[in-house]
């Protein structure tokens, strides 16, 4: 048995039948107990008080549990608490694990308690809770010094100006701003149609990319105009280009003849 328990793969169940009480306590109490447990001076942290009505000794509901903080440094933490006992809960057991990885069954939960301050301490406890909430909402601002970042976080966004590296070797290499990255302003629709007719007088077929460069207009806006004035060639020698619809071709030819 001892040989098996020395191995972390086995569970020690020597205390499986031991009765254990499970208690839910406020955060301030848990922190106080944890700090006292970490100290070298091992002292009791609280005192459990059981009150019994002798006239109703057979009635389980006559049992009253309370707890008194016994730590030397409780500060503003309320000292008196009432324990509400529950019997209807899911069966549970308590386990422990050592730093060497040994797992043990410490016992079976017999009673479950909720711990809350006595009525005379509720006001002080409420004040502590509000202070804790306010502290959690305060954002601690920090100043961080960034070393050797070469100004990357201070550079303008692409599309505003050409990016210039702070490295002396890369100063000659500048990134030009693409025309497509700049925001184009729409012209008046009638004015743009006149420009389009003049362009088609110059040559009968145009690709969308060429027209965007010639007119400096948004591609989507140009498509709306082209769908009204032109036919898109999907095949043939002029595939991928636009040309005027026959009715507009005639008006352009008449204007040219005049």
Short description:
By secondary structure, the chain is an alpha+beta fold. 30% of the residues lie in helices and 21% in strands. Strand 6 (93-97) and strand 7 (103-117) form a beta hairpin.
Structural commentary:
- With 258 residues, this protein is an alpha+beta fold.
- It is 30% helix and 21% strand.
- The chain is built from seven helices and nine strands.
- The strands form two sheets. Strands 1, 2, 3, 4, 5, 6 and 7 form a seven-stranded mixed β-sheet that branches.
- Strand 6 (93-97) and strand 7 form a beta hairpin.
- The protein starts with a helix and ends with a helix.
- The model is unreliable at 1-7 (pLDDT under 50).
Would you report the number of β strands? 9
Terminal CA distance reads 114 Å
The helix/strand series, from N terminus to C terminus, equals HEEHEEEEEHHHHEEH
Query: Helical segment tally?
Result: 7
Instruction: Outline the low-pLDDT stretches.
Output: 1-7
Largest sheet: 7 strands, mixed
The mean pLDDT is: 76
Helix % is: 25-40%
**What structural class should be given to the helix and strand makeup?**
alpha+beta
Strand content: 15-25%
Q: Measured on Cα atoms, how large is the radius of gyration? A: 41 Å
Principal-axes shape call: rod-shaped
